[in-house]
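User: New here, any thoughts?
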Amino acid sequence: MYSVNYHRANSVADAVKLLKTGDAKLVSGGMTLIPAMKTRLAAPSDLVDISRITALKGIKVSGKAVTIGAATTHYEVSTDAKLQKACPALAELASMIGDPAVRHRGTIGGSIANNDPAADYPAAMVALGATIVTNKREIAADKFFKGLFETVLKDGEIVTAVTFNAPAKAAYQKFRNPASRYAIVGVFVAKGKDDVRVAVTGAGDNGVFRAKTIEAALAKSFDPAALAGVKISADSLMSDIHASADYRAHLISVMAKRAVAAANG
């Protein structure tokens, strides 16, 4: 590590002001930034801690409308009784992230803003048709994630919350890396009042994406059997030491079927 100035922000406005100090970076759980600093892949001059800003924490459920503060931890998402009732799939997803240490420190806002191509939350946000709320605007999840570790966030823009309407049915299934528990392939399926949305993480060359062929099949019949003849192209999928593009294409189909089965109970 190296010398770095630490600031604890008292409010979102305070955090925005502090971000103008040197090469400052936001930190909440620090699950990505701190390891990057330790390996010298990141070297901010200042850290702006937003983890204790009360306005950024908590989960609200009003009917079908769900709002989750950006500084809410994975553990809090996984164990909130109101969320478990409104959208158990998202609570279950949060329980699969990392290990207990990660779940008690990492936050939903940090994960979304970082947009790791194998992270779980981006798939949930896209499949749920969520809105990403910042201190400046509201952004549809379909437009928020732009590529590997890239979002549409601008300088001085901070994720403050995510909002969505709870679906009629939903589930998330992933094939985990046995060491990191990141998704080699993860599929989130959500059936709303008028449509079906399916988002895939861990597989795409450009990060999270919607599986339109699977959506079309499930719109006709929300049943695992409806995916029997669906072919997943490997053309835009990644290959690495964990899995080839062809194997990831196979896993997308398998995880989608499992997700639909889980959603149907």
